[in-house]
Amino acid sequence: FIETCKKYKYKFIAYTAEKLNKLEGCCSSSKFVLKTTGTDNVCERCAVLGSDGGRLIVYKTVFDGVTAALAVKDYKISFN
User: Fold this and answer.
1) Exposure of 31 by Cβ count < 10 A (0-12 exposed, 13-18 middle, 19+ buried)?
2) How far apart are CA 59 and CA 73, in angstroms?
3) What is the SS3 string spanning the chain?
4) Is residue 1 predicted with pLDDT exceeding 90?
5) Of 37, 44, 35, whose CA–CA distance to 18 is shortest?
6) 66: which strand partners?
7) Residue ranges of the domains in the chain?
């Protein structure tokens, strides 16, 4: 995955469990994920942080062993 990001010049961001845990009240919780990673939710927390504090539009979704979530941040464009 990291090599693909480098190849296509995609931005790759990783967060520590400590940083993910600072985000409160946004996400579902899993005891298994907490035991495994040190935080109770990775995908939703990463989505919110990666969107600079945006809102979740797709909550934790699992497909073929991959877990993902999507968040967006609203912004305004002004043409003055």
Assistant:
1) exposed
2) 15
3) CHHHHHHHCCCCCCCCHHHHHCCCCCCCCCHHHHHHHCCCCCHHHHHHHHCCCCEEEEEEEEECCEEEEEEECCCCCCCC
4) no
5) 37
6) 63
7) 2-72
pTM: 0.82
- Give residues with Cβ within 8 angstroms of 11, minimum separation 6: 5
| Cα(24)–Cα(39) distance, integer angstroms | 11
Q: What is the pLDDT of residues 5-45, one digit of tens each?
A: 999 999 999 999 999 999 988 899 999 999 999 999 999 99
Those residues with Cβ within 8 angstroms of residue 70's Cβ, 6 or more apart along the chain or in another chain = 47, 56, 57, 58
